[in-house]
Please model this.
Amino acid sequence: MAIRPLIAGNWKMNGLRADAIALAGGIVKNIEDGGAAPCDMLVCPPFPHLQAVSGALAGSAVAVGGQDCHNADAGAHTGDVSAVMLQDAGCSCCIVGHSERRADHDEDDAVVRAKATAVHQEGLIAIICVGETLAQRDAGTTLQIVETQLRGSLPEGAEAENTVIAYEPVWAIGTGRTPSLEQVGEVHDHIRSVLAGITENGEAVRILYGGSMNPGNARDILALANVNGGLVGGASLKIDDFCAIVRSCG
Ligand code: PGA
Model:
């Protein structure tokens, strides 16, 4: 059975509340005007805007997710947010292990795994990010690095219903540079084969590509065999660009 693609927007730390509401409302209107979308859709706003965006998207086909969470349910963790809070704010998914979290907050695979476990415990879908740096790509260790991150970050019980993998080469994020289609295909094929060995239904797990995806390159990337959608940063802040990427799945 074909995997239904997912296009997820990662808004990162951008926009005030009114911007978030306008962006969410604009996406819904654009999608509804264009007819049934050829994929599932998700946006991940900054934490303070979750409730407002959930409201703006209520009744639409666009889901809401968090960009990160703590692995504990509650407690003395200043500045953190738990998976149950995300669920309470209307989220169905949460990104974990984004390279910006791994780099800015020293999150290693064990931390990412603990967060993904917490996401699963609340019945949410974990979008687990992996990807090599430019130095690792140049050293020829991309497949090894990605496989190690995958094996280390995936929790027990990960399966197609509760887990999405996002392959995001660190050097492609926000840079306008993307790997060649061959390079994307090679990594996605490798992720698929690793997943087949460690999860129940690894052949059905969605594997997203992320890193400078835009309306110009999305169709070719999304046409690759083991690319089942995109995790979109910069282009997800523009209504027309995000919606054009959504339409590129069809
Ligand atoms: P980008 O970000 O599309 O701006 O490169 C992608 C991401 O970091 O998820």
